[in-house]
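Hi L., both proteins are below.
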Amino acid sequence: MQEFATSNKGYKYIITIIDCFSKYAYAYPLKTKGANEVTNIFKKLFLEVCLEKLRTDRGKEFENKLFETLLNKYDVNFFTSKDDKIKCAIVERFNRSLKSKMFKYFTSKGTRKYIDILQDLVTSYNNITHRTIKMRPVDVNVENEEEVFFNTYKATSVRELVKKSFSKSKFKDGDKVRIRYKLNPFDKGYNPNWTDSVYTVKDVLSRHKRHLVKISDESRRKI
């Protein structure tokens, strides 16, 4: 949003926050990504809501002593993704929805000023039925949390969800496989996705939704 700063009182960024369970979202404009400004945003947020856990990306605005002190004050369990490439799909989806609403407004009004209507856009999002939870985020509360859980996970409890999550691996001992290269978004489309070498599956270990597959090369050396 930096290109629109002159139309928005110098605000260059928008920090977005979402409750992963209720899908209730928040958005605040920022002039910088400095620790002071971001920490002040969360000070205001913590006066409105009680957070037990918070996950963010690995930005310096979150990984600093000032922010850490605030989290400790409110006893918030804080963690980040180990891999910088891993994003939170839920908040990224909200970001797309927010930008879509914003640019529709830009087109209809012939402006790039969002600072005065940002909270209206967020309120609109929170008052529209979310397809995952099948109700409006603003309507989620303690009384209907079991309904929200079922609509989201198609299970009535965490225990049932974990049981359903165990699935059979598509691999078995003796299968021949190739390993997929870890590509980044800037790799050329013609670069190969898979290794030329073929490996043999030696063992399959079930780990919740994912399976650990042990393989060996032609010399029977385990990889």
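That was the first. Here is the second:
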Amino acid sequence: SYRASLSARVALTFSHLLRRMGKLLAIANSLWVVLACILQYSGFYNTCFCNSSIISRGNAAAYITIIETTDQAALAKVAWIGALFLVCTSASAFVAFVGLLLDTLSR
């Protein structure tokens, strides 16, 4: 009968161990995602001051906690436009890179 060397047996045992640990990690990760979704849906993370003051301030004034000027609104709009530009640029660069990569792999 054939008996594998010690290094082959250690490698086989280590590969089985890593495979099982990977599966356990995947199970734990999926359970964590489901738990986070349940907590989000149940309102567990809803601890904002504006949401907690709705009883004392009423529905009309509970969400007016920050009064901004027109200058602040203009700065926020510029920041949003800049962020949108950066996101679109990086996403386009990624799509172009993947397109180039797929083009070289298909030849």
